[in-house]
Design a protein that fits this description.
alpha/beta, Rossmann fold, two-stranded antiparallel ribbon, globular
């Protein structure tokens, strides 16, 4: 069976398609780069008198800064950093670059009768802002985003995946997650959900294969084409 046939066969067996946001749908920090957002979050920490260790000073991922903040055990500060990150994500969503064929997958999946949901470590507010801007709200996708000030519940924790499945009145066995990170793959495994790894960089191919992704694609065009074939 060809890779395309494998993908069509996998999607045909699933009633629900879960999409990670940053990667499969868009590049949220494409116009407001993540390193700058991470630096903004560090500014909140230093403003609160927190000494920034060397490792954190070099961190480029704002989600990692959020997780580090949680380890301080200062609930008010965590909420402050979370609120700043939500605001930064909302601004980024206004100018985020769509992933080629991400929109086509959503439309194709919807027209093929699949239930769709977004499952992300980004904030739900930012995701909904992007979906509104791109006129994707009409496809009725529920959003399972980051729980406020609870970075421990982000993927690879299966909680947001299972929450999305519950919202769709689906089951893990009937669902497939499309994601572009090891957290997506590990979270899907923990939730008992099939997973398609979107390797948008060459080095991810081996990582995803070693992590046990059910299938790997290098372009969202592959998944969108499979969804169109299901519709036909």
């Amino acid at each position: 069976m060809s890779a395309r046939a494998d993908l069509v066969e996998l999607l045909s067996r699933k009633t629900s398609i879960l999409l990670d946001f940053d990667g499969p749908v868009c590049s949220i920090f494409s116009k407001r780069p993540a390193p700058g957002v991470a630096e903004t979050l560090r500014g909140v920490l230093t403003g609160a008198g927190v000494a920034i260790p060397a490792g954190l000073a070099a961190e480029l991922d704002p989600l990692e800064v959020l997780k580090w903040t949680a380890e301080l055990g200062r609930a008010n500060l965590l909420r402050e950093v979370e609120a700043k990150l939500c605001a930064e994500e909302a601004e980024a969503a206004q100018v985020a670059q769509p992933t080629p064929y991400g929109r086509e997958l959503i439309i194709g999946g919807f027209e093929a009768g699949k239930a769709l949901a977004v499952v992300s470590n980004n904030s739900a507010g930012a995701i909904n802002r992007y979906l509104n801007r791109q006129r994707l709200i009409r496809y009725g996708m529920p959003v399972s985003g980051r729980v406020f000030a609870r970075p421990d519940l982000m993927k690879p924790n299966p909680e947001p995946i299972l929450a999305a499945i519950k919202t769709l009145s689906a089951s893990p066995a009937d669902s497939v997650l499309i994601g572009d990170s090891l957290a997506d793959i590990d979270g899907a495994h923990a939730a008992g959900v099939a997973v398609v790894g979107y390797a948008n960089r060459p080095e991810k191919i081996d990582r995803f294969a070693n992590a046990g992704a059910d299938l790997i694609v290098t372009s969202m065009a592959e998944v969108a084409t499979a969804a169109v074939e299901l519709r036909v």
